[in-house]
User: Fold this.
Amino acid sequence: MTLINRSFLIAVSLIAILAGCDSIGLKKTDQAASTTNHSAQTSTSHTAEAQPEERKYDSVWDRIRAGYALPHASNSTVDAQIRFYTSKKKYFYSVMQQAEPYLYFVTSEMQANNMPMELALLPFIESSYNPTASSPGNQNVGMWQFGAATGRNFGLKQNSWYDGRRDVVASTDAAIRLLKKLYARFDNDWLLAIAAYNAGDGTIQQAIDKNRRAGKPTDFWSLPLNKTTQGYIPQLIALSKIVADPNVYDFNLYPIPDVPYFVKINVDSQINIADAAQQSALDVALLKKLNAGFKSGLTDPTEPRHVLVPVDAAATFRLQLDSLPKIASVKWQEHQVKKGESLEAVAKKYGVSAAKIQAINSLKSAKLAPGQRLQIPLSPSTNSTSETVVAQQVSPQEKTQNIYHTVKSGENLWSIAKAKNTSVETLARLNNMSTKSALKVGQKLIVLSQVNDNTVKNNQIKDSQVTASQTKASESKEAQTLKYTIKSGDTLGKVAAKYDVSVKQLMQWNKIKDETSIRPKQELIVLVDAKN
Assistant:
């Protein structure tokens, strides 16, 4: 994807030189993967919380300018790109605004790795600085537009839960390592390295060899490349010229301060990102955008075990982590399909139903392809029973449903406690605050109805192990009603697997006749302790 979004590209399709997304399939794709190897996975010196710089800058743009190191170039192609950018000022201003959460981090990583700072502008051309961007056919994904195979070669994990190509931190690390590898591959020539990032190193080497045989120069500007790759370097140089001196071009850069936008916070278990955002009074869309690597709205149950959170919300987020609704602890196994292997064979191997595997992995049919990766929920060990209640894994407080209340003008803890039939002390404890804390209008508080409090008190479990018969006898008392909001890509099978219930139960509780009729933002009732 170029700096222009897909709909905008249609409008300006006559400008062939900007068709950067056409080249995406030729660069960091499976073709390019043949020239990479696992030794390229050596880590760069990155950290989500970049170390403070000795020199302070007023904006991140100032720091980028200070580190320019690419060869200077002025020609008609670069001039044409500058004219195009300056003719679409309003649009490019909005794209720069979109880059705000990520630009400081990318700039810091480039600087820490002694890279030309112009390279921090590459994601504008690749994806409009959009971590969820994808090329036609989803061949290349993320802010840095990695193909699947090349991404794996550079350590970017990809499964049903998580795609490292969409992870801002992981993909930036991989892009820096790939660019360094290409820089060394082409004798420390940054223009050739950047061109190879776009077209693939094989394509650039072939062009060099052709010119060498003909006795022609082998610098970037002399190579016989297609129009897309010929235009890729001029796009970057034109953008860097505008950033270097925006006043000359009557161009307003979106103000981005030279301070970290996000920090990395470790989580010890799988969490729902939307729940975490709501509980911390964070914008759900922003938190999902920062953590775009998690595909389903849930963090990966294995790795990575961290989330990116805006700096100014980090303290609140950490405090609220313990009170997040817990997702039942399930061990997962990634299975790579072998030639001739069927879904039924995989299901039999792991003791899981084929229908459940199909639902969890969003498979449109039971047909599998060699090399395909499946996420398999592992059955409990033989020492325990599948009827063991969730209360064995979480405390009664964690098992109780969290209900939120938005503070209105004139309200305080006492008035809210009275209205919700609970105590000031309970509200203070649930929200990690003092009983004398002042409230702000619009603030979200966790509240518990008296019914839920009584349920917790009446259902304390004395023994660490509960037999299947005890579970069934107390099931009606222990069932807690939750509301789950359908997200894009959800199926009833996925929701059922998440809460360890059946699709049939979900359909009964919600009076759903056709399981394909659910839609995003639809609310489902879930009895979290109900058994299949």
About this structure: Confidence is low (pLDDT under 50) at residues 1-27, 29-50, 380-401, 449-479. The longest helix spans residues 168-185. The chain is about 40% helix and 10% strand. The radius of gyration is 27 Å.
